[in-house]
Amino acid sequence: MSKDGVKNAAPIGIVCKGKNKLGCRLFVGTKTLKNIMETRKYVVNIIFNLINFVKSTIGNLDTEEFTDDENIAILKNAEAYIICDVTDIRKMDLIKDHVTSNGEAYIISSDVVKIVKNNPCAKALNRGVFALLECLTNYTRLDLVILGAKANIKFHMFQMAVH
Ligand SMILES: Cc1cc2nc3c(=O)[nH]c(=O)nc-3n(C[C@H](O)[C@H](O)[C@H](O)COP(=O)(O)O)c2cc1C
C-alpha cells in the first residue's frame, strides 16, 4: 500500500530468513519497492488464484479484490496472509545475472508481525517446484525428439535450472 492509501499487489518471491523473519529482493521501478520504502510495512498474501497472478503482474487488481481493512492491502481470497514490518532496506550491488543486466534492486528484511490462516492447509506456490516438474517433463522427451529439438529442450532445461 502506498503512503496515500492506494492498495497494490504483485507476485514477489519471498524467502524465509529465520524464525519470524522474511526477506525479498525488489527491483527498482516496481510500485512494491516504492510503497515499502514509503511505509516500511507490507503484507504477504498467499494465494492460489492464477488470474490474480496474471492481473497483478501486468497491471493491478481491482479495489474490490482487497478487503476493507484500512492501511493494509489484504486480499479477500488469500489462503493466508502475513503482516510484516520492515527492519532493513539495503541496496544490492548492481546485478548482472540471468534476470536482468545491470538491474538495480534492494534487499528488504522484515519481521513477521501477524500470521492469519484462512485455510489451515495454506501453502505458497513455489517456482522451484514447477521448474523441476518442467525439467523432468523435458527430460522424459529427450529421447523422443530429433537432434535439433533435443538441443532446444536442453536449452530450456538449462534456463529453468538457472532461474
Ligand atoms: C512468480 C513471480 C515472481 C516475481 N518475483 C519478483 C521478485 O522477487 N522481485 C521483484 O522485484 N519482482 C518480481 N516479480 C515481478 C513483479 O511481480 C512485476 O514486476 C510486477 O509488475 C511489479 O508490480 P508493481 O509495480 O505493482 O510492484 C515476479 C513476478 C512473478 C510472476
UniProtKB/TrEMBL annotation:
InterPro entries, A to Z: DUF447_N, Split_barrel_FMN-bd, UCP018747
Residues in DUF447 domain copies: 4-90
SUPFAM superfamilies the record matches: FMN-binding split barrel
Residues spanning the membrane: none
Top-level taxon: Archaea
Name of the molecule in the record: DUF447 domain-containing protein
